[in-house]
Amino acid sequence: MANDRLDIVIFGATGYTGKYLVKYAVDFYKEQKMKFGVAGRRKEALEAVIKEFASDIEDVPIILADIKDEESLTKMAKQAKVVINCCGPYRFYGEPVVKACIAAHTHYIDVSGEPQYIERMQLEYNKAAQEAGVYIVSACGFDSIPADLGIIFTQQKFGGEINSIETYLKVWTVGNVKGSVLNYGTWESAVYGLAHENELRELRTKLYPTKLPKFTPKLKSKILHKSDVSEGWSTIFMGSDRSIALRTQRFLYEKYKERPAQVQTYITFESLFSFIMVATIGMIFFLMTRTAFGRNLLLKYPALFSCGFVSHESPKLETQEQSRFSITFKALGWTEKLAEPTDKHTDPPNKKVITKVSSAFGGYDVTSIASILSAITILKETDKIPDNGGVLTSGAAFCKTSLIEQLNKHNIIFEVISSIEK
């Protein structure tokens, strides 16, 4: 890869997430002398982003590229060592950028949380990415990086063999929050993701024709419960965390012959009332995604159907500054690790380890820090990333790198809470 290329190009830099990326790219430019540029359709808008967030840096290159113009995307990719793609929904706008990066022999990162898109990219482009010697890594933001790498961290710290991991996500704000909390693009991606969820079964059958061995004791899902590790009421989290984690666990089994952990992901609410309110919104949301008419209403009136959590207006900066999160991991397993991953333990699990990933940053800040550090890790630690290229999850790509350590240094904290043996 040519040394005269920029280290990172942020494509979609004028969007809500893209602006956050530029803001943090300035910090990393100063910290690590990282060369970066911005890309998008409109020169004036890109100039405005640079003026707002990078005015103290000389000559941040502006690259004009349009998702509908394949040649412009390839020209953009040829100017970068890594492209961070912020243009979603990715089911509509992700694939052309992936193709351009493979053609230009450029690494690719995005912050998608859309399983259909992510898994289809692996099915259709893994071989091409390997042949080009580039890494295509999706879901490098919040909450996938804390969840997937949190599981990797837990496995590294367990000191035995894990049977199951349950994750508990909590999100809250400090102070009084006014206005929307989530960006409209996140809402739009969720609408189309649920509308096309039926694609996943066929997609996964093609992607993984061979089933994993069955491991015992089987991890059972709990619809609504109180956990001993997460205060409040917890229910199954419908985001992409579990699907990404399970792909990582399969990769570790097939590549390194490690026993894959069974995984279930939960989200915790402070009160039963909060759960009922969100569950009601979620049920209405789900039913409306079943028809084109319902989807159009959701997209036209997001504030109405989200009780104000989402609107066409982007969340205010103060809202993100007041946001906090944590993910607690409950791992059960054995102190003894057997010789083969398919060997069966005769005794019930005798060890429990609790870990946590947390930050005083909000989701969009975490997304920006995590995605830029993911890109830097690819640039600096390619020798620690497997297979010399391919479409990988964050856990598969970064499990043997220093990314967790780097995240810790940037105030996304991974820690062991307790370790108990029976």
Distance between the termini: 52 Å
- SS-based structural class? alpha/beta
- Using only C-alpha atoms, the radius of gyration works out to 21 Å
Main sheet summary = 7 strands, parallel
* Low-confidence runs of at least 5 consecutive residues: none
Strand content: 15-25%
Mean pLDDT: 93
What share of the residues lie within helices? Answer: 40-55%
Q: What best-fitting shape do the alpha-carbon axes yield?
A: globular
**Helix segment tally:** 17
Number of strands: 14
Domain Saccharopine dehydrogenase NADP binding: 8-137
Keywords: Membrane, Transmembrane, Transmembrane helix
Family: Belongs to the saccharopine dehydrogenase family.
Protein name: Saccharopine dehydrogenase NADP binding domain-containing protein
List the helices and strands and how they pair.
Elements: E1 6-11, H1 16-32, E2 36-40, H2 43-53, E3 62-64, H3 70-77, E4 80-85, H4 90-93, H5 95-104, E5 107-110, H6 115-132, E6 135-137, H7 144-158, E7 161-173, H8 184-195, H9 199-207, E8 224-225, E9 233-236, H10 241-256, E10 262-269, H11 272-288, H12 292-300, H13 302-305, H14 317-321, E11 323-334, E12 351-359, H15 363-380, E13 390-392, H16 394-398, H17 403-409, E14 413-421
Parallel strand pairs: 1-2, 1-4, 2-3, 4-5, 5-6, 6-13, 7-10
Antiparallel strand pairs: 7-11, 8-9, 9-10, 11-12, 12-14
Helix pairs in contact: 1-15, 3-5, 5-6, 6-9, 7-10
